């Protein structure tokens, strides 16, 4: 491993072999905020590219899976560019779920979960170690459609993000620094389709970014308490953030529009469930409740829809 790189020409390199199966794209796919996320790209050669604002500076990471040897787990080959390259390579095992233990998950006799665990042995809960990177898109996702949130994230990164260092694919951008989030003018929030409540929450979080970033090293309850102490950040946003920044396999997304129905339908055949019923169904899997939800989402299972779809609100003219 060469950790002396860090410029924009020669990459820093690391080769890492995980212990046990690893689905790189399934593990890291949750970090992509929409199919056109400027900070995440999968190229035709199968490589995965991410760019981040790390404690060491801006960095671009390229991850590819090496050829598999008979009876061996394939190696992960990583390259990184920019001032944050060394940090990204040190973080690589945690990002790919080395600190996660899916073998400890007990399906408790549920046939669907037993089958999903068998079919997805390489699905891990990775830890980025970066709070603001996941917190801002989570805030943008509050009370709007998925498409609206994805469009807002893309528009803001393209306008205020920094170019990814190194030979990243065209158009890749790194999320703004905290001070830059705090300086986005109101009219640009509106142009991106973000209402005043969500933009004010991002600004408040940005002003507390140093303290919020410390949550990545805190125990789950303390980390959630630190995030939810910020007005506008509730349990939904905290869970969505800590699932990614802290690799929390138990952080349940309470307050989601669809997840209770998905869990209720998959685990108990109920067409409609609320948060309390969802948490009751997930209780036997405490410690791995988020893992259960991740596994269920791999199936694409959904409860039958009976209510009208949520209609997007155009905030740009408000």
Automatic annotation (TrEMBL):
UniProt-listed Gene3D superfamilies: Hypothetical protein, domain 2
Protein name: DNA-3-methyladenine glycosylase
Keywords: DNA damage, DNA repair
Entry keyword DNA damage: yes
Entries under InterPro entries matching the protein: Alkylbase_DNA_Glycosylase/TA (IPR051912), DNA_glycosylase (IPR011257)
